[in-house]
Amino acid sequence: MSETTTAPAVTAGQPLLDPVPATERPSIGPIADIVPQVRRIVVLRGGALGDLLYAVPALYALAAAYPAAEITLLGSALHADLLRGRPGPVDEVEVLPVTRTDWNQPAQPAEVEFVDRLRTRPVDLAVQLHGGGAWSNPFLRQLNPRVSVGSRAAGAPPLDRNLAYRFYQNEVLRALEVAGLAGAPPVVMEPRVELTPQDVAAADAVLGTVTGPLVVVHPGANDSRRRWPAAAFAEIATHCLDRGATVLIIGGPSDHALVTDLRSRIPAAGDARADRLRTLVGSDMSTLCGVLARAAVLVGNDSGPRHLARAVGTPTVGVFWIGNVISAGPLSRGSDRVLISWQTHCPVCGSDATDERLPRCPHGDSLVSTVPVAAVRGDVDELLGWD
Q: Which residues have C-beta within 8 Å of that of residue 194, sequence separation ≥ 6?
């Protein structure tokens, strides 16, 4: 993102840091004392697209509490692609190398080089937003931060200020609670990503002229158990085409087969709807942001593109498994609709999918196939203003 740390907060034009004392601001959990003389903050949050977006409100909180500090995100190459040149709280992204997970084994050369390079500039505050800390806490402590904060599961090494890690907690709120350990109260409560002129231009180049409202359909998810059946998505896409919408099916680089299968189930070729059924697979982050911002609604699973759609201001209709509603469900319902599958056991072997202490069964069958098409269609119609 850009070098500034004063991007707009809840209301356009309002600075992130306002004159209201921290003790009078809303908080998620207790707000600890501010760390004095912080010039550099390092935040650890790797993973996929959604994992980063969970952390965005906490990043804004840190930027507001420490307006003179530089914020470095330790994340993935995808995170770097999304944040490059984008206004917001992050000044730079350092792409995490492949590192050891067993701390009894010696560090690999890539990890040693990465840590040594980061330590060439002092780290005043290190913030761990990457989970329970079994790997992430000792990794972050290698940077020799003056103060470290983060979540800590049972048995994980401690940081200077620790939040007890519990599996079932909304990830956005967990990250905000960790930011509170660093003295940073919330300034925004939900993920937000600022749109750039480059995003808009990239989307225009891909989409061209769009007839009717643009409905984006995303059938993918990293975990196959979170995927609603292709036949169900096809019914929603067909309904939207029948109502005059343009339907764009999107997917990541590994989703070609999934997108092709879905498109083959939609009876559009050869009729007047053919030009209104489109696909976009493997786009860069700038194009994806622009496309999602132009959409009237996104219909999809619990996945990164659904989170990104809301972060750029697009309404969403999401299909969620009950366990993921707790950890990843949107906080508001003004522009978000959440359809919940209450299935708690694997449909193949009956293993309890809700108990995080149990090893995951080997089956990847959908846990959300029971969500009815009619319920999803009704929410799409409501958000689009269709009778």
A: 7, 86, 87, 88
